[in-house]
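Hi everyone,

Forwarding the result from last night's run.
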Amino acid sequence: MQLQYENAFVLWGLVGVVGWIGFQVYLRFKQPESASWRRGLLSTTVFTLLLFALARPQLGRQMMQKRSLKGNLFIAMDVSRSMAAEDTPPNRIAFGVAYATRLVKKLNGTKFALFPFSDTGYVMMPLTSDTHVAEEMLSVLGPGVTTSQSTDLDTSLRALFTTIQRMQDAARERGEDWAPTQVLLLSDGETHNNVSSSVLAYYRKERIPIFSVVTGTRQGGSISVGQAAGGDTPFRVPSAQRVMTKADPETMD
């Protein structure tokens, strides 16, 4: 069994109880005719019990600290071309979607927003506590939800931070509370520009943690790429040339 006090600081009042007992002893010896042991004992006992009651003792077999699960979680999902690689079955983006979906089901009281990105990103789903809507939106993610197929983590995280700040300011203007914010980043780490320290400093200043999940392997996998007729935009086609893409965990640290 373990004993703890919710308001342990109240027990400092016992110092006063000791002083009161000393005062009663002094009266007993200096003014025995006016001192009453019965009255002194009763007042001391009552005051001591009152202090223990205010301290709120708690007895149990296990001590647990409850924390609120309420918060805003921005799911930043890489939907660039390299996420079609199948080194993480069935492919990198499906792995990321499955991971995020399982997390959504477990977090009660959390609002979710979906931010797909490649060279930049956008809010595909604003904050919602409806887990069914979140699961539906996650299920449709793929390289087709953005026009660009290259990855720029630095620009994308910068855009996400700006989006979070705008949504926070708008909520406060409406007189609404803004819960603590976190970011879940799912990507293979392949990027044209690594995340700069200045971008990470923005998140640290606002106390927005970024939890990164690497999709893909160091050994990598191949994807099909080709050239669109009459243009320079690469796209995935079954008969096109295959190129190797490898995950870069160091970028996600």
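The longest strand covers residues 71-78.

Cheers,
N.
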